[in-house]
Design the sequence.
């Protein structure tokens, strides 16, 4: 199943400067593993030492925040769009 992944500029050094990737995965956790295979080193930027998504990242599936869905176990289906968005803070 093909899922479109929108990659922020800060992570494009791992994707050969591509802002959009196609991956196959049944859930977000599997997507992270798939991204690591095709883009070595990216998972350590997305996940902490326990393998959980970093707190400063927001991940959306079809514009829905996965924190309000099933987190890393959020199911993906063919044609879904996953956006990785670094949190922005300032004052």
Sequence:
């Amino acid at each position: 199943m093909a899922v479109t992944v929108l990659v922020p500029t800060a992570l494009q050094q791992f994707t050969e400067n591509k802002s959009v990737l196609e991956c196959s995965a049944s859930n977000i956790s599997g997507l992270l593993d798939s991204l690591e295979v095709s883009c070595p080193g990216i998972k350590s930027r997305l996940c902490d030492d326990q393998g959980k998504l970093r707190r400063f990242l927001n991940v959306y599936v079809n514009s829905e925040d996965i924190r309000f869905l099933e987190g890393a176990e959020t199911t993906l289906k063919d044609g879904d769009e996953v956006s990785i968005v670094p949190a922005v803070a300032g004052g």
About this structure: The radius of gyration is 12 Å. The chain has two helices and five strands. The chain has one domain: 2-86. Residues 28-38 form the longest helix (11 residues).
